[in-house]
Write a structure and sequence with these properties.
single chain; 362 residues; alpha/beta; Rossmann fold; Dihydrodipicolinate Reductase, domain 2; 8-stranded mixed beta sheet; globular
Length: 362
C-alpha cells in the first residue's frame, strides 16, 4: 500500500469559511491524493479555537494559538490557510510570507489588483508559494466542463455566456459592526459573489491556448448602492479578438436561480450549469441547438447531463492540488496561476471604477 504524501496546515480564524475548509481537509475519502494535517489554528479566542477543533477536526490535535503570529512562527506548519475577511488578506499574507510560510489565501485575494501585486512580489522575493483559494476552478466538474467546451468543442464555437449569483441579505437593517455594512472591509456583492459569476463567464469565453497570456476583455459595468455599500452589479465582457460576450451579475437584494448557475451558448448547442449557487455546482447539461422558428414553437432536444456528486463541500480538490504544488516545489498554483488572479482583480477594479464603488485602500 502506497503512503500518501502529507502536508501540515496552519489555519487562520475560526469563521464559517475556515470551518468548511477544515472539515473537508480531514474527510475520509478513497480518492485523496494527500494526507492533510491540521497542525495549528490561530484565533483571538483560544477557547473558541478549541471548540472549533473539536467540532470540525475531532480526530486531529492541532495547536491552538491566541494569535496569528504564533501560527507563522510554528516550525511544524508547512502552509498557512488564510480565511480572514477580505480587508485583512494583504497584511495576513505579508506577515506569513515574512515568516517564510507558504500561503493559500481565500478569494478575493485582496481588495484590489495593486495589493495583489504587492503580495505576489513579496512572495517572489521570499521564495515561497502563494495562491488564491478560488476553489471553483479546482472542482472536477469545472475541469471536465472546460475539456468538453474547449477541447471537444461539444457546442461548437462559443459566442456568449451568462452567470448570476444572488443572495438575499437585508443590508440596511444589519448592525453597523457586521461585515456587509462596512465599505472599508470590501462589502458588497461583487467581491463576495460576483467573483464566481465572473469566473464562470471567463472560464467559458477564454481561449485556453492563450494561457497564461490571456487578455482582459472590454468592460461595460453598472452598480447600485445603498449608502456606500454596493448592492447589485451587472457587467458585460467583450473579447475583441473573438467577439465573444459575457454577462456577469450579482446581488445581495434577492436570491438567485437555485438551479441555473451559468448558461453557455455555442454555434452547435448550449450548456447549463446546475447547483445550489454559483460557487457550488453539482451538474451540467449539454443541449443541442434550439429548433423551431424564432419567436414561436421553439423547441429543445434532450440534453446529456453530467453529474458530479460532492463529498463534503468540495474544498478537498483545491486542498489536494495546492498541497501537490507545494510538495513539488512550485511557487504558484498550477490551476489558478498568479497571472489569472491579477487579471480577475483588474477586471473587478474596472467594474468598480465604472460602477462607483471605492474602498479607502483604492
Amino acid at each position: 500500500m502506497s503512503v500518501l504524501p502529507s502536508i501540515r496546515w496552519g489555519i487562520l480564524t475560526t469563521g464559517k469559511i475556515a470551518s468548511w475548509y477544515v472539515a473537508d481537509l480531514v474527510l475520509s475519502r478513497p480518492d485523496a491524493k494527500v494526507r492533510h494535517i491540521v497542525q495549528a489554528i490561530g484565533t483571538s479566542d483560544v477557547n473558541r479555537g478549541r471548540s472549533f477543533a473539536q467540532q470540525y477536526c475531532p480526530e486531529e490535535t492541532p495547536k491552538i494559538y491566541g494569535s496569528y503570529e504564533e501560527v507563522y512562527r510554528d516550525p511544524d506548519v508547512d502552509i498557512v490557510y488564510i480565511g480572514t475577511p477580505h480587508a485583512f488578506h494583504k497584511q495576513n499574507c505579508l506577515d506569513a510570507i515574512a515568516a517564510g510560510k507558504h500561503v493559500l489565501c481565500e478569494k478575493p485575494f485582496t481588495l484590489n489588483a495593486r495589493q495583489a501585486r504587492e503580495v505576489f512580489e513579496a512572495a517572489r522575493q521570499k521564495g515561497v508559494f502563494i495562491a488564491e483559494a478560488m476553489w471553483l476552478r479546482h472542482r472536477p466538474l469545472t475541469l471536465e466542463l472546460q475539456r468538453i467546451l474547449h477541447q471537444e468543442k461539444a457546442i461548437g464555437e462559443i459566442f456568449r455566456a451568462t452567470s448570476d449569483f444572488g443572495s438575499e441579505i437585508d443590508i440596511p437593517n444589519l448592525p453597523l459592526d457586521k461585515y456587509y455594512r462596512q465599505n472599508a472591509m470590501g462589502a458588497g456583492s461583487l467581491l463576495d459573489m460576483g467573483i464566481y459569476s465572473l469566473t464562470w463567464v471567463m472560464l467559458s469565453l477564454d481561449d485556453p491556448e492563450l494561457a497564461p497570456n490571456r487578455t482582459k476583455p472590454n468592460i461595460l459595468a453598472a452598480q447600485t448602492h445603498w449608502e456606500d455599500i454596493e448592492l447589485t452589479t451587472s457587467a458585460i465582457l467583450q473579447y475583441p479578438s473573438t467577439g465573444r460576450q459575457g454577462i456577469v451579475t450579482s446581488t445581495t437584494v434577492a436570491n438567485g436561480n437555485p438551479d441555473l448557475l451559468a448558461r453557455i451558448h455555442g454555434t452547435a448547442g448550449s450548456v447549463e450549469v446546475h447547483g445550489s449557487c454559483a460557487s457550488a455546482p453539482t451538474a451540467f447539461t449539454v443541449y443541442p441547438p434550439f429548433g423551431g422558428e424564432s419567436g414561436a414553437n421553439v423547441t429543445r432536444g434532450p440534453g446529456k447531463r453530467y453529474d458530479f456528486p460532492v463529498l463534503g463541500r468540495g474544498f478537498q480538490y483545491q486542498a489536494d492540488n495546492i498541497a501537490l504544488d507545494v510538495l513539488n516545489g512550485r511557487l504558484e498554483s498550477s490551476i489558478v496561476p498568479q497571472s489569472e488572479t491579477l487579471r480577475v482583480m483588474e477586471i473587478m477594479d474596472e467594474i468598480r471604477r465604472q460602477g462607483g464603488t471605492r474602498y479607502p485602500v483604492d
